[in-house]
Amino acid sequence: MTENMRSLRNFFLYKCLFALTFWNHISLSMANELFKSVSNDFPEDGSDKKIKSLPLLYTNSHQSKANFDWVVIQNITESLSLSEITNDNVKKLVALLSNFRQGSRLQNLTLTNMSVDWNALTEVFQTVWHSSIEDFKINSLTQLSNIESYDFDYSGTSMKALTIKKVLITDLYFSQDDLYKLFANMNIEALTIAESEMIHMMCPLSNSPFKYLNFLKNDLTDLLFQNCDTLVQLEKLILQKNKFESLCKVSFMTSRMKLLQYLDMSNNLLSHDAADVQCRWAESLTELDLSSNQLTDSVFECLPVNIKKLNLQNNQITSITKGMVELKSLEELNLASNRLADLPGCSGFMSLEFLNVEMNLILTPSADFFQSCLRVKKLQARCNPFKCSCELQDFIRLERQSGVELIDWPTEYVCEYPEDLRGTQLKDFHLTELACNTTLLLVTALLLTLVLVAVVAFLCIYLDVLWYVQMTWQWTQTKRRAWHNHPEEQETVLQFHAFISYSERDSLWVKNELIPNLEKGEGCVQLCQHERNFIPGKSIVENIINCIEKSYKSIFVLSPNFVQSEWCHYELYFAHHKLFSENSNSLILILLEPIPPHIVPARYHKLKALMAKRTYLEWPKERSKRALFWANLRAAISINLPMADGQWCGETD
């Protein structure tokens, strides 16, 4: 048959199938013959591009209910998908598959919603095993009953991969070995049995060609493949979402798998007791997924020494103790969603290039990380409760200098603490050098302290602060003793119009001018003078305080001699103290002689202040002005004082 005639014939057969689809009366035997004819005549090189797939065929024979409800045929040279397989139509399925002997183009077969008994299932498997099919998938398989031993012929197969998902076995009484040995001894490279509540799998009886095993979402336990020596070709093993509990037993399971490179143990119940015997992993294992288990810090005592990629996400790890583990080949480490309070060091991971610590409890990552992890190129640390502090600022600065790529920077890195900075992106957080440099801060504080001490010492010396402290203490003690000895006399009674404070060198002016003119003039002015009114037996300071407190005014006779007198200074201080403590206007200053500023001691700063702020009476040299002087002075000390006869001194009739 020529090429043109063969193409025309295939096109005609395709049209027949398409027409029969709408008639709903195609029989499986007719479909088999048509499939065989079309598939045998397709060019070997696939050059005929006109017929790429057959349409959806509805084959519901009125004569028999044992036909397929739907047959989906996609590119019959490569893939075939069938659904709704039951005991009623499984014979016709076997007959259909028998047409695809080795050498045919069909390589991929998918069966969906298959509900058959054990004998029918094994017959389908056996037919597929001796066909051209390489990849066989079953989605949703219900095995009804009658599981028993079956002598399966594995020889001469093109099969490479078998995938079975969602298996439901209704037979409650059968030998587990009869079921599992069918799959365990298959001579294919890849086997997947997932979501099937499988509780066990046998070790192959002889060296197995399995390179890939996937038992996702079953009920497998630590008993799986213990002491199994026949999985010598296995490279990838997926045991995710099962019920494994002991990490140590898992390590022993792998120890006999000499070529195992990848192991997925995520979403199990794994834990590790540090008291367990030493773990023993396959030396070939380079990638291990232990995420979503119950592992703690002790997991680092039970890890493969040659591991390159390690996933410990979503466990209960708080820290990595220095010296606990040495994984020289480790390149990628995922510690996300644990309980880490700081970045781990790399003393045990000298080849580490990628680290993931997102969603931990890291407040202030240590800047030492960049010194110990010199080979790290990428760091994922987002979504941690960062505390914006000097240490964090040091970390950010060193990160920029190191050249490490901070993944998701800057949008996913924000301050959590303190409260006033919450939500602030780390890139916008800054502290001054002085606030963060402890040494500089200490030196600055020390210098400021020294300067302050020096200033205070200078002021104390210059202003005679110690002298004032001493006077205040004496004032307080005198008042306390007076109150203690005469508690009934809490209110001081004025006895004098004025207390006179003067230098002994100015005593002649006081005795010859001041006292006679005030006491012997008009009125009965009573003056307090130390020579006649100080009480013997009391200290000078106590006498000064008593006289000032019993006097309405205090008259200070100022002269160069006054500022040179120590006692005059005492009297001025106590009078000034009364001025502020009683809020009274009790000071009268008489400038007897001009006082050059340079001779006034520094401790007389109060005198300087008083003379600058208060009006003082200046003793006139001209006699004609003295009458006014005495009149002003009398007016300043004018007050009625009680006398012994009950009258008031200073009263006029």
Automatic annotation (TrEMBL):
Tell me the superkingdom of the source: Eukaryota
Which molecular function GO terms apply here?
A: lipopeptide binding; signaling receptor activity; Toll-like receptor 2 binding
This entry carries the following GO cellular component terms, namely: plasma membrane
Classification via InterPro entries: Cys-rich_flank_reg_C (IPR000483), Leu-rich_rpt (IPR001611), Leu-rich_rpt_typical-subtyp (IPR003591), LRR_dom_sf (IPR032675), TIR_dom (IPR000157), Toll_tir_struct_dom_sf (IPR035897)
Give the membrane topology, semicolon-separated if more than one.
Answer: Single-pass type I membrane protein
Residues annotated as domain TIR: 494-637
The record's listing under Pfam families reads:
LRR_8 (PF13855), TIR (PF01582)
What transmembrane ranges does the database entry give? 440-469
Q: Which GO terms describe its biological process?
A: cellular response to bacterial lipopeptide; inflammatory response; innate immune response; toll-like receptor signaling pathway
Instruction: Identify the SUPFAM superfamilies for this entry.
Output: L domain-like (SSF52058), Toll/Interleukin receptor TIR domain (SSF52200)
Span of the signal peptide: 1-31
Subcellular location per UniProt equals:
Membrane
Q: Which UniProt keywords apply?
A: Glycoprotein, Immunity, Inflammatory response, Innate immunity, Leucine-rich repeat, Membrane, Receptor, Repeat, Signal, Transmembrane, Transmembrane helix
What protein family does this chain belong to?
Answer: Belongs to the Toll-like receptor family.
Q: Which PANTHER family match?
A: TOLL-LIKE RECEPTOR, TOLL-LIKE RECEPTOR 6
Its recorded name reads Toll-like receptor 1
Q: Which organism is it from?
A: Eudyptes sclateri (Erect-crested penguin)
**Gene behind the chain:** TLR1
